[in-house]
Amino acid sequence: MLQELLVSRWFARQPAALQERLAQAGRLISLSAGQWVYGEGDDATGLVLVLGGLVRLEATVGERTILVGVAQTGGAFGQSQRHGGGPRIVTARAGPPSRVFTINDRALERVAADLPLLWQAVSTLVYAQLDASVHSLAQMLALPPRARIAARLLPFAEAGEAPLSQSDLAELCGLSRKATNAHLAALEAAGAIRRGYGRVSVLDAAALAAVDGGSRFA
């Protein structure tokens, strides 16, 4: 299990002793497509490491549920009420079939009793999520539509494929489906991507990065 968890960038940066304890404290879950990890407003908090697939992060606006972010293989997210805070802010559910490793608050407390440096590691993870949220907002405010789409696709360049539909990208970028489709068609014509059913293949990361002039938000 320990070796499998090293796919998580956050986990891989932790000291060996903390890695061992976290590996023993968590739970491996295989998710079918669309299956929830947790729901918005849930009181039970903790951490989630994505070991395979992709997890959708969704928020409720009025009567609509909007895709606000995604966590692909190697990502980690979540929070703990140990040092304040509240219930879950978003709903997390699998996009395609996925595998996640969850560590609930009770397990985090047990690990931290012996290794209090855990709370620093959790704070680092929470800060990273805040940083990502702020820069996603900056993309929405500062980048033109096609550059927003390119910025959302670039993190999938290493995997080679984003398991996102055109509707998903429209929600993530604050655009209509029609506009999103037109911009994707232009990116495909330029050889940067290839559209597929429910997914987009990234063919040329440099071409995508050039869409927004190499902005740090890519």
What integer is the average pLDDT? 93
How does the overall form come out from the CA principal axes? globular
Spatial gap, N to C terminus: 33 Å
Biggest sheet strand order reads 1-8-3-6
Q: How would you spell out the order of helices and strands?
A: HHHEEEEEEEEHHHEHHEEH
Number of E-state strands: 11
Q: Name the helicity range.
A: 40-55%
Helix/strand/pairing class, anyone?
Answer: alpha+beta
Strand content: 25-35%
Largest sheet at a glance? 4 strands, antiparallel
Radius of gyration: 18 Å
Low-confidence runs of at least 5 consecutive residues: 214-218
Number of helices: 9
Plain-language structure description:
This protein is α+β, with helices and mostly antiparallel strands and 218 residues long. 41% of the residues lie in helices and 26% in strands. It is built from nine helices and eleven strands. Helix 3 (16-25) packs antiparallel against helix 4 (105-114). Mean pLDDT is 93; it is low at 214-218.
Short synopsis of the structure:
By secondary structure, the protein is α+β, with helices and mostly antiparallel strands.
Outline the fold blueprint.
Blueprint: H1 2-5, H2 9-12, H3 16-25, E1 27-31, E2 36-38, E3 46-52, E4 54-61, E5 64-72, E6 76-79, E7 91-94, E8 98-104, H4 105-114, H5 118-142, H6 145-153, E9 161-162, H7 166-173, H8 177-189, E10 193-196, E11 199-202, H9 205-211
Antiparallel strand pairs: 1-8, 2-7, 3-6, 3-8, 4-5, 4-7, 9-11, 10-11
Helix pairs in contact: 3-4, 6-7, 6-8, 7-8
